[in-house]
Structure formats: structure tokens, C-alpha cells
Specification:
The complex is a heterotrimer of chains A (404), B (225) and C (614). Chain A is of the alpha+beta class. Chain A has 13 helices and twelve strands. Chain A has two domains: 2-45 and 287-403, no CATH class; 54-276, no CATH class. Chain A has a six-stranded mixed β-barrel. In chain A, a hairpin with a 6-residue loop joins β7 and β8 (182-198). Chain B is an alpha/beta fold and 225 residues long. In chain B, α6 links the parallel β7 (163-167) and β8. Chain B is 35% helix and 29% strand. In chain B, the strands form two sheets. In chain B, strands 6-7-8-3-9-10 form a six-stranded mixed β-sheet, sandwiched between helices. In chain C, 46% of the residues are buried. The longest helix of chain C has 38 residues, at 12-49. Chain C is α+β, with helices and mostly antiparallel strands and 614 residues long. Chain C is rod-shaped, with a radius of gyration of 40 Å. Classes of the chains: A alpha+beta (404), B alpha/beta (225), C alpha+beta (614).
């Protein structure tokens, strides 16, 4: 049987070449198809992991992204969202040392106070520039304790040291309306423990550097204690999974954040969101649509593979009925008689597959190549089996008649 | 009797890609109507090649082959085979995908005989070869060898020619069918005035012939006249 | 031939499979070809229909705290104003490596004095009292203007006379040290309508009804250098002056008269906007303003600064102007901060919240005068196109020679005054350039109406169609070779018998080719039909559907254009037939060549080889 198969492989060069070529082409083309789709999917996955989609709360016309009044409901909504990460919040206050009346505020309020939840929120500040005392480290920013870090020069001026407890009368900004007016209101006298110092930031950046930095949540706590509505000045964050951008934006809508309107009047109210997602959206959209286009052709491709496999095998097999009839005449059973033909065809497909795989491994992902190999082998193989088994079901006389 | 075919010093060389073979060497003979001629010889003696030349399937390398005085080289050999000479073979060579009747009608269609007329004539010819009507619509693969050969003969005479060439016509048949075919060929020659030339190595077939030529290594000789 | 056709039809399964394969191959070629042509056509159409605009806004470098007195609260209010260390010039964003179709322009607008025309701004349009006007008034009670005081407006020097003879409320609200007024005396001030309600102890005691008060404002020049530096007014004016005899002969009095004149001038003025492309104007780009009649200035006219213009429909109707008429412009101030709708809001009204006098207290001089030919009339959507002013003329930027004279306001780049055009599909390249230049004080926003999304879908379509075409072509070649093998090579015996029976070579060839042609025709005709159906079913809407929500995004999608995306046509018939023809041509060619080769030899050899094959 093996001899017969090898003889046939040697003898029927043209027909065998056709089979090998068809198999090779199918492998190459399907590799291109699936390989392209796989590559797009991988790119999309990598893009999602590496793309930084940044969001920031602004005023309605987008001209301000700090010094705003961002309501607590917005803050809570953002904090509760598991679709954002690295949320950065800040609230800016004024303060003066000790207790004094409102009438004296102009003379006494000299300190810029920032309530922040991360080092990076303070322009120019980094972990290296903060010198914590024994008890605290960067977890300071996440705490809600009444603690603070102070500018070194301010500490010198006031004669403060790390570990000292200081009393500050704080003032906060409030807005009478959406328009330009801002008013200062007392937040009350607060006792804070100095848990560290920070290097002088004045002149490092063009922003007004804070003299005192308090944990954001601590400031919020103070407001709540005083039963004053809390507002943040700035909020920004990164979207955790850019692929869930639509879910994220749906959540932001639910929180009540609106879209920027460049023609709106200037204001301090922060209820608008600006998301820097153009790069990601452009590239991810392109990739997604490429994948969808390819997928839309999948039914055609599948039909094609099967059709080619079955029909070509049928036609080639048809021409060998006489040959098969002779084998049966020699006494071979239907299964043993069909086996050399099947074996021969499978060797040819395998050969075509191997050539195709060898070429495609230079360009395509090995997983895809193996997958395509299997698909072509299976589809073509099914076709061959169906075609030649059809032959096996006929009687010998019938085969001889047809072949003649 | 008028000589239908005359071979004068005919030689033929087979040319393949790699070699030349002299199949016939200086063959001279003639064939007349109304007679059955047998050309006998062993396998490979050149008798089938000679028959092919008589059928106009090629022209001699040397010598001349005259058909009613005309040199074969000068006549249209396709028209010759269509209208004047027909060949039957051991393997019958019927169209497997045409019915018995359609096979016999085929040459008449080539002669542009109207379909109705062709069908009627085909039925006549099939009757002549004693083929039952029940087989007219069968495919050649469905009938016996003897029946197939009779169909081949009917197709051969359907073109209305005068020369019937047969290459081992009984080679695939049993003795009974063989007898039938031989009788048919003789009938065509003696009753219908065909020049029937049969290539055979069968003694019984040769015995029925009027003239027997022997072919040996491409050389023809008269065995019995 | 009938005989041969009969023989073909007597192997129905094989025949059907061959036809099916021919159909499949034809479908691939037809779909590939149609999709290629369609995607090519669409991409060309989109190139023309879509434009990509970028806008630029400069972020403030800092905030500045200022304290403004509030007379009602009797304390200073804190304001934070954005501060710009310097204004980024448009040349700085003209990156050499960027491919601009229209280079960045930071637009200004000019005021044009044209009393011969009827202006929409002539009608103030609102029921409430004038926004700002110069009046002579007499206090109805003496007192310091630290709270709202009743005044009788005895004379309006400005153009809006409605306040003349009325009683209004005045308070020097933002002045820490307001003047004391005496009942019965005559004073002069430019009074501006304020959003503050009347207030004061006396007010509360007397139970007056609430009213919006007027505040006096000084008449000051607000001139800037072309670099954006404010030129200080040498004359420091108060908010209110007493009108005594000979007052109007003084420098102060003269100023008031000049300022009042300017009010009339503003009433008879209209804005002129210069640009290098109408598409750069937000309203036109967004489709809230459009060409009603005529044409846009051509590229050459923009480049050469031709004296052509677009006028609004209302202005043309009000002044019986039409295409081909001339419009005169007399430019006398430049505003390098805001869009003209702030001064001439639509549909009616005017409010110049900037100084309109020069440093000598005189009216601003006309610095450029020109006649423009009307080549187009545009219209705007009501309640939209906020950045388009009433009576706004649009001219080629290069037609204005003195672009930065009498600058009355100066501001940074904003989304509405700074824009540029880049080639479609180049947003990501441009973003890379911005990243490379490490710009963090400018915000770039792009508007492409969805071009990038659409074009990528088309590009994918094109790639897919190319793959189908190649695949189809290869399959067609292989299939037609296979057909010639089945219907020619394997038919040697039949051909031999036919030759034997007297058929000529030509007859044998023609009969065989006719049979093959029939098969090919059946396969290609059905393939062409099926292919055209499939081509039509590729849904462009699916391909161009937005995957991501664009809300909040820094890429703006303006109105998306409808370019017939609801579904492709059913494929181009001529192209489809051509593809079918290609398959037929291949089949006939291969079979014809094979037949010729086989029939070339003598029938004897054909017979022998045919018998040998059997």
C-alpha cells in the first residue's frame, strides 16, 4: 500500500502539484487573514495597557482646571468609580497662625495651604523633597489625620519644628454665584501636627507654592466638622482601563459631569470633564474597525475553505475511479482500497501546509500559523475524506462502469 | 474489380521524442470492394499501423497510398474518414456518455443530416446489426461487448462509406459473439459491397476472409488470395 | 455540439461542482473588485468633503489675585484672573515639520465705520435700559455714592436716548472712595448697567423696590502694542465729573464728547474679519453658517489678498446688496482678543466694552479704507453660530495691509480665534509633533467630522478587497487550469474518436471550447450576480460606526457629514461583468492552448495516447 502511494505520488506530478499548491495558497492566505486579525487584536490589547487616558475636571468653557469649586458629590462619584485610577485632588486654603477675628484677617492671613492626596498634585514637589519625621512616610497623603508638612523657610520664619503642634485659623473660598466673585470665609481654628518639612518650592515652578500641605481627606474632615459644604479646587485622574472608555464616560455622565462648551461664560464651578483620549480613541477605533471588517468576511472565508477542500478533492478523486476499481479488483477492501488515496492526499496537503507554514513563520505569529494549519488541514481533510469515501461506497462493477 | 485502395511500396517510420522505429517496410498491396481482407501477423508486426494508414490517420513516410487512384497525401483525410472510410476497434471506442442510438447518429450529425432522418437511419443500421430496440436508449457501459461491437459497426456504416477497417474487432469477444461479428463483416462486404479490411491474429477470423495478407516485421506478404 | 453538451450534462455532479467553483471564484473577484472600486471612490469623495481643523487655546501661566471693592458688602472681594507671562504668537505654532493646508492664524477683527449702510446693531433690541452710555444726570438726593442713589438723567450724550428724562439708580459700587453728590447739581458719567441690585440702608428704610443699578465707569483708552502690551493712558479719569460752565472746553469734557461721538460711530459700524480660509471660521466649519449665494473666495484670492468679501444675508437684504456689488470698509480699530459677536451680538445690539479713544482722547482714526467686491452671501442658523457677529464681513486676511493698528483689546489664543487646517487623516502625526515640541501651555483640539474613523474603515475595506482579488485571481488561474485538465486533457480519447469519425481539428476544437464556454458562462453569470449582491451587503455603517464615546474628548466631532453611508450600491455592473469575463477568458485561453497542442499531432498519435490514458 505504501509502495502504491509513493508510486502514485511520483507518477501524477501535475495533479499532485495542484493539490500542494492549493494547500499552500490556502495556508498562506488564511495566515494572512487570521494573522492580520490576531495582530490587530494584540495591538489593541497592548494599546489598552500602555495608553494613558487622562481626565481633568474643568469649568464649563474649559478655560480653568484649577481654582474651581468641585462639589463633593462629584468627588465621591469619582472616588467610588473603579474605572479610574491615580486620582489627584487638591483644595486651596489660606491660613494664619493662631486665633484672630475676621476683621483682622487681612493682617494675619499669610499662609497658602494646600490639601492634596498625592505628592504630584503640588507643582514641583516630589518624594525626595519631603523630609518626614519618624512616624510618617508617603502614606501621609492618604491619611485623614490632622497633620501637615511645612515649607522649610516658613518653619524657620515661625520657629516651628517637626513634631510641633500648631494652630492655624483657616479660610476657604466660596463663590456667591457662577460669576467672578470669590469670597473668603473662615473655616475655623485647627490644630495640626507638623510631621515633616518640604524643601522650598518658590521659584521652582510658576505656580504659587503652598506653605503648608495637609492631607486632602483631613481638609474634608475639617469642613464636615464645621458643617460647611466641601469643594475641591482641582481633580484629575487616569482612566484605569481605556478599553472600558464608554463605561467610564457613562459613569461620568451619571455623576453629573458635563461636556465642555467653549462659548460658555467664564466661571469657577467645576462640573465639566475634559478627557485627553484623542490618541487612544483614534488608534483603538481604527484597530477595532479593522478587526470588525475582517470578522465580517469570516463566513465567506469559511465557506471558501470548505468548498475548495471538498470540491477539488471530489474532482480529483473522480478521475481516479478506474484506479480505485482496479485495486478493489485485486481484492482490497473498500477501506484498505481508499486508504492509499487518502494517505496520498493528506501527504500532499501536509506538504503544502509545511511550505506555507515555513513561509508564514517568517512573518506571522506561530500560534496563528499552527491554528491556520489545523483549520486548512481539517477543512481540506474533511473534503478529501468525504470525496474518497463516496468512492468507497460504490460497488466494483459500478466503479468499473463509471471509469469506462 | 476496381481497386479501392492501393498501397505501393509503403513504408512508415514512427518518430517519438527519443527514437525512430520502422513499422512498415515497402508494403505493396491492393484492396477491392466486395471482399473481406484479413491482415494477420504477430503483435508488433505493424498490422495496426498499416490499418491506421489505410484509415488516413497518418500518411506513409515513403511510398504512396491511393484511394480510388488518388494519393492519400492529396485528399482531405478527415472528409475521407467522415464519408468514405470507417474504423472499428477492439476496444469499441463508443462515446460512453451517449446512448446507443446517439452513438450511431453521430456521424450523420457530422454530415448535417437532419435529426429526424438521422434517427430513422440509425435505427435501420441498428436493425441491420441485429441489435434489439430495447437497447437503443442504453449507455454503452450497460450492454455486452458483442452488442457494443455491433453498435460500433452500425456507427461505422452510418456514415455511408465504402471502406470498413477493423482492428482486432473480435479481440474482446467470446466465440459466439465473434462468429456474429465476422458474419456481419462478411455480409457487409458480400452484400453491401464494402471493402472490409480486418486486422487480426485470430485464425477463425482469417479463415472467413476472402484474401489473407501476412505481416511480419513490417513486411507484407500474400498468404492466401 | 449538442452531442457534446449532452455528454457534459450526463455528469451532473461534476458539472455542478465545476460551475460552483467557477461561481465561487467569480464571486471573489467581483466582490474584491467592487469593494476596491467603491472604497477608492469613497476615499476620493471623502478627501474632498472632509476637512480637518485644529484649534489652539493658550493656558494661563498663573493666576493673579485682585481685590475689588464691593460697596454693598463694604469689603474687598477677591478675584482670580488668569495671567499670561506672554502671549504665544501664531508663528510659534507654525511648526516647520507639520504639513499645513492652511497655516495657523490667530484672528483679529476690525471695526469698520460705514454710516451709509443700515446695520442690525442700530437696533439695541432689548427691553431693558442701555448697557452703557454717557449721560448728564442730577442726583435726586445728596449723598456719597457708596450705596444706590436715585438720579434724574437729564441728557444722554450717547446714541441710545431711551434713558433721557428717566430716573435711574446709580452707585459707584467698586470705588472704595466714592464721591459725594449734591442734589440738584449736574454731573456727567459713562454709566454702565450692572448685575447688582440696588442696595443701602436708606434703600431698606424707604422700602424701595429692587432695581438693577448703574455704575459709573471711567472713560479710558485701552490701547495695546502689537505685542500685547497695554499702553497706559496718561490721563487718569474719575468715574464722575460735575458739569460746570466751560466743562466741555476742558480736556475731560472734550473726552466725554468724543466718547459720545464714538457711541454713534459704533452704532454705524460693523465688524470685518480677515481669514486665509472660510473653513477656519468655527461657524462655517461647524455648519451653522453657510454660503447662501455666490461662492467662497478662491485659494488664489486668499493668497493674493484680493478685494473680495462675503456678506451676511441680512446685511445684504437690509441694504439691497447683491453679488457683484461693492462694499466699503473704513477700519478704525483692531480687536485682538475676542470674536466680534462680543461687540455686535446677533441678532441685534452693540456693546463696546473697550476704550474707543486714542491717547489724546480723540476718536480713533481710520487707518485703512477699501472697497470690496461681494462674491458671496452667507447665512447663519438662528440662535447658533455665536461667534459670528451681525453684519460681519469676511475678507481675505492678506487684503488688509494694516492688520494691527489701534488695538483696543488683546488676548491669548482661544478655540474661537486660532485655528489651522491639516490634511485629512494626519491628526496623529500632528499630535506627535506637538509631543516632540513638548508644548504644555497650549491646548490643541481637532475637528475632522469623523474623517479619521471613516477613512480607516475604508482603508481596511481596500486591504480586504485587494486580498480577495489576489486570492480570486490565483484561484481563477488554478480552476481554469483544472477545467482544461478535465475537459481537454482527460478527453483525449473522445477527441481521438471524434477525429476518427471524420471531425476536423477545427470542429473538435470548437465543440470542446463551446462546452467549456457554457460551463464558464453558467458559473460566471451566477457568480457575477451573487458577487454584486454580496458587495452591496457590506454595510458601510457597520464599518464606520463609532466604537468609542466621544463625549468629553479632546477631539471634537462636529456635525458628521452624510455621504451616503447607508449601504453601498449593488456593485458596479460593468466591473463585475469584467471580472466574469476575466474568468471566461482565462478558461478559454488555457483550454484553447491545450486543445491546440493536443490536436496538433496526427490522429493516430492522438488515438494511441488516448488509448494509453484509458
Amino acid at each position: 500500500m505504501l509502495t502504491y502511494m509513493l508510486y502514485s505520488l511520483k507518477r501524477r506530478k501535475a495533479a499532485n502539484l495542484i493539490t500542494v499548491c492549493i494547500s499552500f495558497l490556502l495556508v498562506v492566505l488564511l495566515n494572512l487573514y487570521f494573522g492580520t486579525m490576531h495582530s490587530y487584536e494584540q495591538q489593541l490589547h497592548e494599546l489598552a495597557e500602555n495608553a494613558l487616558v487622562y481626565g481633568r475636571v474643568t469649568n464649563k468653557n474649559g478655560s480653568r482646571d484649577s481654582g474651581l469649586f468641585i462639589s463633593e458629590s462629584v468627588l465621591d462619584g469619582l472616588s467610588a468609580s473603579d474605572l479610574i485610577t491615580d486620582e489627584s485632588c487638591a483644595v486651596y486654603l489660606l491660613a494664619g497662625e493662631g486665633e484672630f477675628t475676621q476683621a483682622e484677617w487681612e493682617k494675619c492671613v499669610h499662609l497658602q495651604v494646600s490639601g492634596v492626596n498625592r505628592t504630584e498634585v503640588v507643582d514641583g514637589l516630589s518624594a525626595e523633597k519631603i523630609h518626614f519625621g519618624k512616624k510618617y512616610d508617603e502614606s501621609f497623603f492618604a491619611s485623614d489625620s490632622l497633620v501637615c508638612i511645612v515649607d522649610e523657610s516658613v518653619m524657620r520664619k515661625y520657629g516651628w519644628e517637626t513634631g510641633d503642634k500648631i494652630e492655624l485659623t483657616m479660610y476657604y473660598y466660596s463663590s456667591a454665584s457662577e460669576l467672578f466673585k470669590l469670597e473668603l470665609y473662615p473655616l475655623g481654628l485647627v490644630e495640626l501636627e507638623i510631621v515633616g518639612s518640604m524643601e522650598r518650592l518658590a521659584g521652582v515652578t510658576s505656580a504659587i507654592p503652598p506653605d503648608v500641605v495637609i492631607p486632602f481627606e483631613a481638609v474634608r474632615r475639617i469642613y464636615h466638622q464645621q458643617e460647611i459644604p466641601f469643594f475641591a479646587d482641582t481633580v484629575s485622574f487616569y482612566v484605569d482601563d481605556p478599553m472600558r472608555l464608554n463605561d467610564f464616560k457613562e459613569e461620568m455622565r451619571a455623576i453629573g459631569l458635563q461636556e465642555r462648551d467653549p462659548t460658555a461664560m467664564d466661571s469657577y464651578i467645576g462640573y465639566t470633564l475634559a478627557v485627553r483620549d484623542s490618541n487612544f480613541v483614534t488608534m483603538a477605533s481604527q484597530l477595532r474597525q479593522s478587526i470588525e471588517v475582517l470578522r465580517s468576511f469570516l463566513p465567506v472565508v469559511c465557506i471558501l475553505i470548505f468548498a475548495i477542500g471538498y470540491i477539488v478533492s471530489y474532482l480529483l478523486g473522480n478521475g481516479r475511479m478506474g484506479e480505485y476499481a482496479l485495486l478493489r479488483l485485486q481484492g482490497m477492501g473498500s477501506v484498505k482500497g481508499t486508504a492509499p488515496f487518502l494517505g496520498e492526499q493528506f501527504i500532499l496537503i501536509l506538504l503544502g501546509n509545511l511550505f506555507g507554514n515555513a513561509l508564514m513563520l517568517l512573518f506571522a505569529d506561530s500560534v496563528v500559523v499552527i491554528l491556520v494549519n489545523g483549520v486548512v488541514f481539517a477543512a481540506y481533510g474533511i473534503g478529501i475524506i468525504m470525496a474518497y469515501c463516496r468512492m468507497g461506497r460504490k460497488s466494483v462493477i459500478g466503479l468499473l462502469t463509471v471509469s469506462q | 474489380m476496381e481497386k479501392m485502395i492501393e498501397a505501393v511500396n509503403v513504408s512508415y517510420i514512427y518518430q517519438t521524442k527519443y527514437q525512430k522505429t520502422k513499422a512498415l517496410s515497402g508494403v505493396s498491396c491492393s484492396f477491392e470492394r466486395g471482399k473481406v481482407y484479413a491482415v494477420t501477423g504477430k503483435s508488433g508486426s505493424g498490422k495496426s499501423t498499416f490499418l491506421s494508414l489505410l484509415a488516413g490517420l497518418d500518411v506513409p513516410t515513403e511510398g504512396t497510398l491511393n484511394i480510388e487512384g488518388e494519393d492519400m497525401r492529396k485528399i482531405n483525410r478527415d472528409t475521407y474518414r467522415l464519408n468514405r472510410a470507417s474504423v472499428i476497434y477492439q476496444a469499441f471506442h463508443l462515446f460512453p456518455l451517449l446512448t446507443v442510438l446517439e452513438n450511431v447518429m453521430f456521424p450523420m450529425q457530422l454530415q448535417h443530416v437532419p435529426a429526424k432522418q438521422a434517427k430513422a437511419r440509425a435505427q435501420e443500421y441498428l436493425k441491420k446489426v441485429d441489435l434489439p430496440e430495447s437497447l437503443y436508449k442504453k449507455m454503452p457501459g450497460m450492454i455486452s461487448g458483442g452488442e457494443q461491437q455491433r453498435v460500433a459497426i452500425a456507427r461505422a456504416i452510418a456514415s455511408g462509406g465504402e471502406i470498413l477497417l477493423a482492428d482486432e474487432p473480435t479481440g474482446n469477444l467470446d466465440s459466439q459473439n465473434e462468429k456474429v461479428i465476422v458474419e456481419l463483416l462478411c455480409k457487409l462486404a458480400h452484400e453491401d459491397n464494402y471493402a472490409v479490411i480486418v486486422v487480426t491474429h485470430n485464425e477463425a477470423v482469417a479463415a472467413a476472409a476472402d484474401v489473407v495478407y501476412g505481416m511480419s516485421d513490417g513486411v507484407l506478404s500474400v498468404v492466401r488470395e | 455540439m449538442k452531442s457534446y453538451i449532452k455528454q457534459i450534462l450526463r455528469t451532473p455532479v461534476q458539472t455542478l461542482f465545476i460551475i460552483a467553483l467557477v461561481m465561487v471564484v467569480t464571486v471573489m473577484l467581483v466582490v474584491g473588485g467592487n469593494l476596491w472600486v467603491t472604497s477608492d471612490r469613497l476615499s476620493k469623495a471623502y478627501e474632498n468633503d472632509f476637512i480637518t481643523i485644529g484649534t489652539v487655546a493658550q493656558k494661563p501661566d498663573n493666576v493673579q489675585e485682585s481685590r475689588v471693592w464691593d460697596a454693598e458688602k463694604e469689603e474687598y472681594q477677591i478675584r482670580y484672573e488668569p495671567v499670561y507671562d506672554r502671549y504665544v504668537a501664531q508663528e510659534e505654532i507654525n511648526f516647520p515639520e507639520a504639513e499645513y493646508l492652511v497655516e495657523p492664524e490667530k484672528r483679529v477683527y476690525w471695526g469698520s465705520y460705514a454710516p451709509e449702510y443700515l446695520h442690525a446693531s442700530a437696533d439695541v433690541g432689548y427691553d431693558f435700559d442701555a448697557v452703557a452710555t454717557i449721560v448728564e444726570f442730577s442726583p435726586m438726593e445728596s449723598g456719597i455714592l457708596s450705596l444706590s442713589k436715585r438720579i434724574k438723567i437729564t441728557r444722554v450724550l450717547g446714541s441710545d436716548k431711551r434713558l433721557e428724562g428717566t430716573v435711574s439708580w446709580l452707585c459707584d459700587h467698586t470705588n472704595r472712595y466714592p464721591v459725594e453728590l449734591e442734589e440738584g447739581k449736574t454731573y456727567i458719567a459713562m454709566i454702565k448697567w450692572s448685575a447688582v441690585l440696588t442696595h443701602g440702608k436708606e434703600w431698606e428704610e424707604k422700602g424701595y423696590l429692587s432695581h438693577l443699578e448703574y455704575n459709573p465707569i471711567p472713560i479710558e483708552t485701552t490701547l495695546y502694542t502689537p505685542e500685547g502690551k497695554r499702553i497706559e493712558d496718561p490721563l487718569k479719569m474719575q468715574n464722575i465729573y460735575e458739569v460746570t460752565e466751560g466743562f466741555y472746553g476742558t480736556e475731560i469734557g472734550r473726552r466725554y464728547l468724543e466718547a459720545a461721538d464714538m457711541d454713534y460711530i459704533i452704532k454705524e459700524s460693523q465688524p470685518v474679519v480677515g481669514t486665509n480660509s472660510t473653513d477656519l471660521l468655527p461657524a462655517f466649519y461647524e455648519g451653522t453658517a453657510w454660503l447662501y449665494e455666490g461662492r467662497y473666495p478662491t485659494l488664489e484670492e486668499y493668497e493674493q489678498g484680493s478685494a473680495v468679501c462675503l456678506v451676511p444675508k441680512e446685511f445684504a437684504d437690509n441694504n439691497n446688496l447683491s453679488l457683484g456689488d461693492q462694499v466699503i470698509t473704513r477700519l478704525y480699530f483692531t480687536n485682538a482678543k475676542k470674536t466680534p459677536n462680543w461687540t455686535w451680538p446677533r441678532p441685534v445690539g452693540r456693546y463696546a466694552n473697550f476704550g474707543i479713544l486714542d491717547l489724546d482722547g480723540n476718536s480713533l482714526e481710520i487707518f485703512e479704507e477699501k472697497n470690496y467686491l461681494i462674491v458671496g452671501i452667507y447665512d447663519v442658523a438662528p440662535l447658533m453660530a455665536d461667534d459670528i457677529a451681525s453684519d460681519e464681513l469676511i475678507v481675505p486676511l492678506n487684503s488688509i495691509h494694516k492688520k494691527m493698528e489701534n488695538i483696543v483689546e488683546y488676548g491669548p489664543m482661544t478655540d474661537t480665534n486660532t485655528s489651522f487646517q491639516i490634511p485629512n487623516g494626519s491628526i496623529s502625526d500632528f499630535l506627535e509633533i506637538i509631543t516632540k515640541h513638548n508644548i504644555d501651555n497650549l491646548v490643541f483640539t481637532f475637528h475632522d467630522r469623523g474623517y479619521s474613523v471613516l477613512m480607516e474603515g475604508i482603508r481596511n475595506l481596500k486591504n480586504m478587497s485587494a486580498a480577495l482579488l489576489i486570492m480570486g485571481l490565483i484561484a481563477a488561474v488554478m480552476l481554469t487550469l483544472q477545467i482544461s485538465h478535465i475537459y481537454v486533457t482527460k478527453q483525449k480519447k473522445r477527441l481521438a474518436v471524434e477525429r476518427l469519425l471524420g471531425m476536423t481539428k477545427k470542429m473538435c476544437r470548437n465543440v470542446s471550447l463551446a462546452g467549456i464556454l457554457l460551463l464558464l458562462l453558467l458559473g460566471t453569470v451566477s457568480g457575477v450576480r451573487a458577487g454584486m449582491e454580496i458587495s452591496g451587503h457590506v454595510n458601510m455603517e457597520d464599518l464606520t460606526r463609532e466604537n468609542f464615546d466621544r463625549m468629553y474628548s479632546n477631539i471634537g466631532i462636529s456635525e458628521e457629514q452624510e455621504v451616503g453611508l447607508s449601504g453601498l450600491d449593488m456593485g458596479d455592473a460593468a466591473l463585475s461583468c469584467m471580472m466574469g469575463g476575466l474568468v471566461i477568458a482565462l478558461g478559454m485561453t488555457f483550454s484553447g492552448v491545450k486543445l491546440r497542442k493536443i490536436l496538433r499531432g496526427e490522429p493516430m498519435y492522438l488515438l494511441e495516447s488516448g488509448m494509453a490514458e484509458k
